Amino acid sequence: MFISYNISMQKKTLIKKGVIAGYNRGLYSVLIDGKYFQARLHPQINFSSKDKLIVGDKVKIEISPLHNLILEQETRKNFLQRTRRSKNKKKKRQIIAANIDLAIIVSSIKNPSFNPLFIDRYLVIITQANISPLICLNKIDLNNSDNGNFPSILNYYEKEMSIPVIKTSTLNGRGISTLQRKIAQKTSVFLGQSGVGKSSLINALEKKLQIKTSPVNPKTGQGRHTTTNFRLYPIGKKTYIIDTPGIRNLSLNHIEPRLLELYFTDFQKYTQQCYYRNCWHQNENGCGVKQTYKEGKIPASRYQSYLKILQEIKV
Ligand SMILES: Nc1nc2c(ncn2[C@@H]2O[C@H](COP(=O)(O)OP(=O)(O)OP(=O)(O)O)[C@@H](O)[C@H]2O)c(=O)[nH]1
Ligand SMILES: [Mg+2]
Ligand SMILES: [Zn+2]
């Protein structure tokens, strides 16, 4: 009886390709041809990836009236990672999204206040993953003067580091069509502090979505950690967007201290001028990076970001 039942069910089984759009308590949401399916990992299959599947992972899935099972995970083209402190205070490497074409660092001009140190931290993990970055300066409607007074570091990112910078406002729609063009036919991940307007920007790009957003704390200007899960949304043809929760402290302890200078790509020209081959660019004599910073060609915030991250990860 059991066997015949199984055979009849098998007839209705379909194998499809999909992408992981979300995860909640052992259940994955898999996007297939614009529709979501809830699925579990096949219990008898050993997945090669030590980390569990994450948003952006491409999978093969068996769909049947009984249950949907994930059979196979495609090799990741790239993946973003950070360090996460677990409950027992142990630091663990966490992979946060896979198969990304464009990583958008969202920052607001105000509420919460603009802080290049956050941008630099995100740039480290994006560079490590070999993903193209883009900086989005949001809430420009809150800028007092109409024609400028934007943080000058943005020019440095754009001119010296060739990172595209887009200025946007979800309130008056400025820059949204430019952003739309940049994300077309790509999978983009929106990163940044809580309250900078990541979910609001995604809602502006695709009106149908209506992702939950909430006002920043008026006293502190800080966000309220409204988005709590990583989620992938399809918008238009071959265009996907991943919304992420604002990370309070982006820890980078998984980064090998010796490799940090490589992820500060703008330092490359000057590390060759260092007297010591193993220079950390901290207090060494004859350091090309420090010298360039003193001459004003490396902005103070960039150099400070490097020193701060290095101090954190060297201990
Ligand atoms: N003035 C102004 N406010 C904006 C703009 N974009 C978003 N906001 C507001 O900023 C607040 C926070 O926006 P969210 O989209 O929830 O921010 P988030 O980055 O998704 O935050 P988390 O989900 O907590 O990480 C909301 O009250 C938005 O209405 C903008 O361009 N201008
Ligand atoms: Mg959000
Ligand atoms: Zn040096």
Give the number of helices. 9
Level-1 CATH class name of the largest domain: Alpha Beta
Shape: globular
Q: Which ligands appear in the coordinates?
A: guanosine-5'-triphosphate, magnesium ion, zinc ion
Sequence of strands across the biggest β-sheet: 10-9-8-11-13-12
Structural class per helix/strand content?
A: alpha/beta
Describe this protein's structure.
By secondary structure, the protein is an alpha/beta fold. The chain folds into three domains: 72 residues, Beta Barrel (OB fold (Dihydrolipoamide Acetyltransferase, E2P)); 165 residues, Rossmann fold (3-Layer(aba) Sandwich), CATH 3.40.50.300; 58 residues, Probable gtpase engc, domain 3 (Ribonucleotide Reductase Protein R1, domain 1, Orthogonal Bundle), CATH 1.10.40.50. It contains nine helices and 13 strands. A six-stranded mixed sheet has the order 10-9-8-11-13-12, with helices on both faces. A five-stranded mixed barrel has the order 1-2-3-5-4. A hairpin with a 2-residue loop joins strand 2 and strand 3. Helix 2 crosses helix 9. The longest helix is centred in the C-terminal third of the chain and has 15 residues. The termini are far apart. The N terminus is likely disordered. It binds guanosine-5'-triphosphate, magnesium ion and zinc ion. Magnesium ion (MG) binds next to helix 5.
